[in-house]
Amino acid sequence: MTPHYGSMRPIFARLSPNRSLLRCFSSTRCRWEIRDIAALPDRISPSYQETTHHDLLCLQWPQPPRNVLVVIKDGSPAVRDTMIEYANHINSTYPDVSLILEPHVAREVHEGLEFPVYTTAGVSTPANVRLQDKVDVTCTLGGDGTILHASSLFATARDVPPVLSFSMGTLGFLGEWKFSEHKRAFREVFMSGAAAGYGSSLLQSEGNSEAADKSSVLTGWSSVRGKSMGPSRSSRVLLRNRLKVGIFAADGTPLTHEKPSSHVATRERHTTEEVYAMNEVLLHRGREPHLAIINIYVGGRFLTEAVADGLLISTPTGSTAYSLSSGGSIVHPLVSSLLLTPICARSLSFRPLVLPANTPITLTLSEKNRGDEVEVSVDGVRREKGLTRGMEVRVVGEDIRSDQREWGGGVPSIVRAGNAGGSDGQDHWVGGLNGLLKFNYPFGEDE
Fold first, then answer.
1. CA–CA separation, 350 vs 304, rounded Å?
2. What angle do CA 394, 396, 397 make, to 5 degrees?
3. Alpha-carbon distance 281 to 375, whole Å?
4. What is the pLDDT of residues 382-413, one digit of tens each?
5. I want to staple 425 with a disulfide (CB 3.0 to 4.6 A). Which of 32, 55, 233, 290 is the partner?
6. Is NAD set as a keyword in this record (predicted)?
7. Which residues pair with 302 in a beta bridge?
8. Tens digit of pLDDT for each residue in 280-320?
9. Residue among 128, 140, 190, 134 nearest 159 (CA)
């Protein structure tokens, strides 16, 4: 039987005035939206307070954080699915929090979320809007490389947002938390700084006028179920030192070089600003068949002429990375220092050095070097143009305490507090040496 289409005309007539509807028969607002970070409120900067019982610092928010950047390990569908679970938890439990994703991640996952996400939109983002001006907290899902990448997104920032890391990578020496603890871990970070008893349970004690309008009360810390644990249970922070790196011409003019995050879609791939490195600065002979010859100056005085495959200047955090593989010392992250480690030096008497963090180190290419340049890498990102004769690489440790005795700078890493009666700030590091790096592990014995 031929259908009678005339009876359907009233339906189409009702829908025809609005041809922009994407989903008919639905009254809900459009989902799957990617927005620009320029629409977000400016960043809330926390303070880091000393305590009398341990070496770690205490995270204190002046008001609840609002903008959370989530950085994930690339190429892992399992991590991507976990990130969606994490994002849904934050959105449902902390309704005032906005999520920021990297552009390629936002494009992949936004259709699986029922709320908008924010990202840097490349050329459409105003020139004066930077990621470091918007992000309150950074969360990473992955391994040590993911943490290093997250740090590189703030390579030109003096103050890096606190980093909450969930270990989902290969090694995870820097990752402090398991994802099974994500609810507890994020709540501790979010509530740090809230007065004791702050929470939605206080609604019962509010005045009648305020209790009548819950929409005006359930904001910020009040929107979280339960009560705060008080300032004594705030999140603990380990400030990881960084290196301040500058590249200069022979006349002292700063040269442009790639930001460590330049492989990410950003408007500006180059900068003349000093760049901060979380792990190390590397000078290496690269494809040249001959050993590199590099002049080293420490504190303005000539130290030695290094003849080696390369040279590393590392932070204590980087002491368990490339420097460790090159025979360098393992340094506790609370020790304010930097490491000078040769890579396959010609002389057996050229040993690794540990120097104070405020010691300036200058590296130049010797006139004796047989090649025209050596490669320069900052946190694993190689500079397009290497170090040539007359140029200088200047490195010094970052100051993490101001003249007013206030803590800041570095990479604030959210860590667990130590066990009761233990030495806070050491349990996770010692555990990582034994459990992950197998420190002094005997041969021929089972675990």
1. 9
2. 155
3. 11
4. 988 899 999 999 999 998 887 777 888 899 99
5. 55
6. yes
7. 297
8. 999 999 999 999 999 999 999 999 999 999 999 999 999 99
9. 134
